[in-house]
Amino acid sequence: MDNNTTNITEIIEKTKELGKLLENSNQVKALAAARAAYEQNADIQELNGQFNIHKMSIAALSRQENPDEERISGHEQKLKEIYDSIMSSKVMTEYQKSTQAVEQLVSEINNILNFYITGQTPQGCTGSCATCSGCSGK
Predict the structure, then answer these.
(1) Which residue, of 1, 3, 7, 65, has the greatest Cβ tally within 10 A?
(2) How far apart are CA 4 and CA 92, in angstroms?
């Protein structure tokens, strides 16, 4: 094995270790719990079903030779109401909050990796001092 292959193998192994650390992080565990709560919530699933029915109805009506704009508008209004109900539910807000926390963590990791690859610091504040050489806002 040459050094290049050894480096790639080591990088892959370290990446797997990082993946396991992430898997066991509070952020990823919270996301898994929030996703399970979302998927198991009967009210949300019922709303998702209704949402999909209205979405399919809009598509079907729109494909007709002379689309009934009033019926399409009615489905669009109902779609918006269902969407608003889903998005305002506690289950969905927890799911979104958990998703954002994981995305922020992954972004911070990417910023660190990019720094070591390019030597350039990330543009803008990530909210984590671990990825920054100093705060310009202080």
Answers:
(1) 7
(2) 46
